[in-house]
Structure formats: structure tokens, C-alpha cells
Amino acid sequence: MKNTKSLVIASLFAALTCVTTMAIKIPTPTNGYIHPGDGMVLLCGILLGPQIGGLAAGIGSMLADVFSGYASYAVGTLIIKAASAVAAGILYRVLPGKSRARIAVCGFVGEAIMVGGYYLYEIGLGMASGSNLAASAIAATAGVPFNVVQGASGILIALVLFPVLQKIPSFRAWMGKNA
After folding, report:
1. Relative to the CA of 152, which of 25, 100, 106, 175 has its CA 20 to 30 Å away?
2. How far apart are CA 119 and CA 154, in angstroms?
3. Under DSSP, is residue 24 helix (H, G, I), strand (E, B) or coil?
4. In angstroms, how far apart are the furthest CA atoms of the chain?
5. What mean pLDDT, rounded, does the chain reach?
6. How far is CA 4 from CA 1, 10, 12, 76, 176, in A?
7. Fold classified for 4-178
8. Contact call for residues 14 and 56 (beta carbons, < 8 A)
9. What are phi and psi for residue 26, nearest 5 degrees?
10. Considering only CA atoms, which of 58, 162, 168 is closest in space to residue 103?
11. Burial call 29-50: b when 16+ CB within 10 Å, e when fewer
């Protein structure tokens, strides 16, 4: 962290990620839930950078799982959401321009990591509970469409919120120093 202000902003984004994940939860038949928190996960990576954004996204998402009774997903969520934010943050810094397409590409890659990450994690959970690889893979496949919906909503949320945040003068000034 460069300074106290950066630490405070990263902590704020972790808290916002946790709250947006917990605020609206649509349960799925696969024992998970769809939520708007992925929009904040992407914004963490894009706005805070891959390292700090990855930590904020991972910690905020993990805390939401712990507080919501999904503790068995907490470690996986920490890793998966951090990886999603890291990918979005890296891409945002290497792709040219300031267009919505740039945000959409960052979001698509980040959310593809989320979908694939949870697929693999759920296979691991299935195998840990005694199922074989084939049965675990089939069961994990059932969650993919719900994660795709969550990912798409996360991209849309990031596309809407990014320009709004950029219009806040103090935030824009902070971003200029830290982008």
C-alpha cells in the first residue's frame, strides 16, 4: 500500500464487495446463490489494480460466504474471486482505450475464470464428500448456467458503475495517481 488512503479505499471496496454479495441473494438449486457482488469484484481489479484489487475482491467475497453460511466455499471463493479481479485488473492495464468494450472484455475474462473456478472447486467438493470424478463433474456442471448468469450480471453492473465512479472528482484524482 502506498499510503493510508489506499488502504482505506481497498478496505472500503472489500466491504462493498461483501455487502453487494450479501444484499441480494437468489438461491439456486445447486446449493449456491446468484448475487450482484461480481460487479464489485470486477471493479476491484479494474479500479484498484490486480494486486490490491485481487485482495479486496477475494477477502470481501470470502467474508460474504462466511457470513451467509457458505463457509465450505470460503477458501475457494477467496482464490476464485481474487483470480477474477487480478485478471480483470491486468487486462485493464494492458488493453488500450477507455471504451465500454475494454471493461466488457476485462469482465468477460474475469467471469470466465469465476465460472471455471467454481466448476473445478465443486468437483473437488464432490470428490471430498465421497463421489467419484465422473459423478462430481456431472454434478458441478449443473451450477455452470447459474454462474454464467451471475457473471453476466456482474459485467453489466461493472459497465454501469465504472463511468459513475469516474465522475466523482476525488475518486478520479485518486485513480489518476494509482492507475
Report:
1. 175
2. 18
3. coil
4. 54
5. 93
6. 8, 10, 12, 29, 17
7. Arp2/3 complex 21 kDa subunit ARPC3 (1.10.1760)
8. yes
9. -105, 105
10. 162
11. ebebbbbbbbbbbbbbbbbbbb
For residue 149, give every residue at least 6 positions away whose Cβ sits within 8 Å of its Cβ, in sequence order, or none: 34
pTM of structure: 0.92
pLDDT band, very low/low/confident/very high, at 177 (cuts 50, 70, 90): low
Structural domain boundaries of the chain? 4-178
Q: Dihedral (C-alpha) 16, 78, 139, 137: value to the nearest 10 degrees? A: 140
Q: How high is the pLDDT of residue 176?
A: 61
Rounded CA separation 104/140 (Å): 26
φ, ψ for residue 142, nearest 5 deg: -65, -25
Q: What's at 162, amino acid-wise? A: F
